[in-house]
TrEMBL record:
An MF annotation (GO) of this entry: oxidoreductase activity
Superkingdom per UniProt: Bacteria
InterPro entries documented for this protein: NAD(P)-bd_dom_sf (IPR036291), Sc_DH/Rdtase_CS (IPR020904), SDR_fam (IPR002347)
Name the UniProt record assigns to this protein: SDR family NAD(P)-dependent oxidoreductase
Keywords: Oxidoreductase
Enzyme nomenclature, EC number: 1.-.-.-
Organismal lineage: Bacteria, Bacillati, Bacillota, Bacilli, Bacillales
Family: Belongs to the short-chain dehydrogenases/reductases (SDR) family.
Originating species: Thalassobacillus hwangdonensis
Length: 264
C-alpha cells in the first residue's frame, strides 16, 4: 500500500478500461480520490459507482474526447474550477494503429498525434501551474518501449512515444527543484483492448500473447510509485534490457531481431 495516496486527488485519462481502469481501482484501494476522464460516459459512471461502493471513497468522472483539443481544454478547465486541489496527473490515454506508413490513413496518423502527444501536453500545460503554485504534484506519462525501440508498422506510434519520452525527460529537469515529480512509464505489450484497434487482425496480439504484461499488475506498480521521485518505470525488465542494447548497437539489433520486429 502507498500511504501517500490516501486522500489525494489523482486525475487519470483513458480511465474507462484497461490500464486506466486498474489505475482508478488501485488509487481507490489506497484511499485516493480518482478523477476519471474518457469518452465513454456509461463506463465511467459504472466504474465510479463501483469504486464508491467498494472502497468508500469519492470518485469523479468527466467525459472528454482527447483527440479534440478544444473539448479537452474546456473539460480540464472545468476540472480545475471544481476541484480546489489536484495532487497528480496520470496521462494514460493512448491510441495505436499498426500499418506501414505509406498505407496509413491520415485520419489515423492525426488521431495518434492528437491523443498520444497533444493531449498529454495539453493536460500538463493546464495542471502544471497548479502543481507549481502548491509546490506539490506528480505527473506520470504513459509512454512505451516503442518510444525507445521502433519497429516496422509502428512509425507513427513509435514517433508519438519518442515525443512523450523527450517531453517527460525535459519537463522533469525543468521542475525538479519545485516539488513536482515527473515519471515516464515504458511498458511492452499490455493485455488490454488497445490491440483491438492497433491490430484488428489479431495476428500480432496472438504472436506476443505470452509476453504481454498484466494491466492490473502494471497499474499497481504505477500507483505504488505515486509521490516518489521515480524517473522511469520499465516493464518487463528483459525488454528494457533489449532497448538498452538497441540504443548501443541499433544496426546489429535490427538484424538479429528482424523476424521478431516484423511480427505485426
Amino acid at each position: 500500500m502507498n500511504e501517500q495516496v490516501n486522500g489525494k486527488k489523482i486525475l487519470i485519462t483513458g480511465a474507462s478500461n484497461g490500464i486506466g481502469m486498474y489505475l482508478a481501482i488501485h488509487v481507490a484501494r489506497n484511499g485516493g480520490i480518482p478523477i476519471l476522464v474518457a469518452r465513454s460516459e456509461g463506463k465511467l459512471e459504472v466504474i465510479a459507482n463501483e469504486l464508491k461502493r467498494r472502497y468508500g471513497v469519492e470518485c469523479h468522472w468527466y467525459r472528454a474526447d482527447l483527440s479534440n483539443d478544444d473539448e479537452w481544454k474546456d473539460v480540464s478547465d472545468q476540472i480545475l474550477f471544481v476541484h480546489d486541489r489536484i495532487d497528480a496527473l496520470i496521462n494514460n490515454a493512448g491510441l495505436g494503429v499498426f500499418d506501414r506508413f505509406n498505407e496509413s490513413a491520415w485520419q489515423d496518423i492525426d488521431r495518434m498525434l492528437e491523443v498520444n502527444v497533444k493531449a498529454v501536453m495539453r493536460a500538463t500545460h493546464q495542471l502544471l501551474p497548479h502543481f507549481l503554485l502548491q509546490k506539490h504534484g506528480h505527473i506520470i506519462n504513459i509512454a512505451s518501449q516503442a518510444g525507445k525501440m521502433a519497429t516496422p508498422k509502428s512509425a507513427v506510434y513509435s514517433a508519438t512515444k519518442h515525443a512523450v519520452l523527450g517531453f517527460t525527460n525535459a519537463l522533469r529537469m525543468e521542475v525538479q527543484t519545485e516539488g513536482v515529480f515527473v515519471t515516464s512509464v515504458n511498458p511492452g505489450p499490455v493485455r488490454t483492448n488497445f490491440f483491438n484497434v492497433a491490430d484488428p487482425s489479431g495476428n500480432y496480439a496472438a504472436s506476443v500473447d505470452r509476453l504481454m504484461i498484466d494491466a492490473n499488475r502494471l497499474a499497481r506498480v504505477i500507483v505504488d510509485a505515486l509521490f516518489q521521485p521515480v524517473r522511469e518505470i520499465n516493464l518487463p525488465r528483459w525488454m528494457e534490457a533489449g532497448s538498452k542494447l538497441y540504443n548501443m548497437t541499433p544496426a546489429t539489433m535490427e538484424k538479429l531481431m528482424k523476424k521478431q520486429f516484423e511480427k505485426k
